[in-house]
Amino acid sequence: MAENQHVVGSEKEIIVLNGKMHFYWNQLLEPSDFQRANSPEASALVDFPDTWNNFEIDENRLPGRGHATYRTWFIADTVLPMALKVDDYCNAFKIWINGKFVAGAGNPGTGPVSNIAAKVNVVKAFIPERGMNEVVIQTANYEEKYGGFRQPFLIGTETEIRRIESDEKIAEAFVLGVILAMALYHLVLFALNRKRKAFLWFGAMSFFIALRLGLLSHIDFFDPWLQQNVHFYLKLAIAAMYLTSAALFLFFYSVFPDRLKKWIRDLYSLMALAFVGITFILPYYLVSVGIHFFQLFFLLGFLYLFYLTIRSFSGSSKYKRMIGVGILLFLLATAFEALIFNRAVYSGYTLHYGLVGFIIFQSFALSADFSETVRKNQELTKVLDRQNKNLKKEVEEKSRESIEAKERELLTVMMQKSGNDRLLRIIEEKLRRISLSQVEDSNENISNVVKTINNALHSDESDRYFFHFEKIHPGFFDSLKHKHPSLSQNELKLCAYLRMNLGNLEIAGFLHVEQESVRKAKTRMRKKMNLESNRDIQAYLLNMR
Prior knowledge:
By secondary structure, the chain is of the alpha+beta class. Helices cover 59% and strands 15% of the residues. Strands 1, 2, 3, 4, 7, 8, 9, 10, 11 and 12 form a 10-stranded mixed sheet that branches. Strands 5-6 form a two-stranded antiparallel ribbon. The protein is rod-shaped, with a radius of gyration of 49 Å.
């Protein structure tokens, strides 16, 4: 009997069909073969599940390719409907319990032509017999390097086995959904920020692992197609593994460009792509054998990444240290899955769970990076606000100083013109007196001189004056004319004097009139502009924009 088996006596109890089993090498036997008087003898007692590669029978090491039969027993003290659960990566098998065919996948053959492998996720119901129950298992392997089974079989009540199957599918569907969501999320982040290549490579890595999980998991939405294209399915699962490792190197370089040399990144990526091409070109059996040589290359690459990740913890930001922890978790999950793939450990695949751990730390890292970015942006905004306020004050001061300088320049020009005007008036007055005292024939020449001086005194300097003033106070006259279109040219000039903050005495001097005349002109202009009597017209003009 097989070791480590026990009695099924309750609804919750599960038999894990493992331990030692009778093994019949290169024989595809059925239950009827064991009913004959000269029933075949077992070639050996072997461990189940396990690979038969290199197992010795009569001092001969068994190859991976071949076919065999397993035989064992379990005890049941119930006749409740039960179920058998079989999971495997890729296999061909048939199972009988108590002489009745219960389950199968593919077709176990005696050679590569007759053997048909299949992806195996099987749950089949059967009715046990009270007491001893015989289990006969046919299997064959001509597809890959290792023969035998990777997972133990489960036997229990149909309800409990179906629950286990459902729980596995729910867990794997949840993990697959999380990984696909993270793939899409990071690809969208990359689309929004093309400079952050880490988002692209993390999204690609998540997608390739999601693809591999969808191929290898208990979720069966790929199964109808996979069973018809089992070799392509196996190659695609391996190619996804190669592409995942390349994406990990590219991601690491994006986060730690100072740690990983660019030529090493490029060499590793090119080698991974080359392995992908070889995988789809060669027959799967050669791929299965060759992958164990390729694994040495990947092992060296991952060990190098492990070393660089440990080194990256010193002198890195909190964001990068979190990513480093995620990478370490992922590398450990990868190492454990390599042991499973090479039949050193018999368990379910773990790479996707390693990525989930990576995603958790990547999410913390993104949150920390985002929070740090927001904090720095807030601090930068405050600094810029202070600088803008200081700059605005400085600009206002410089503008005020410039305007005051130009006003002083304009005032100087006006004072010079006023002095010239005063001198011309004196000359004009003297010439008038001379003209009154001289003879008739000279009066005409003197009158011409007086006329010239008078024209100079009363010539219209408004355009030139307004031009200079407009350069100092741009838009002032346009705004004034728009609000008060009835103002005359002289009133506009008076408004300009007032805008320059000149007093009545200064304005009277420039206009060569009495202060009282200036005051009366301001009063008339206030009424014309419809300003209240108590409102200072000069303050009104100073505040005009």
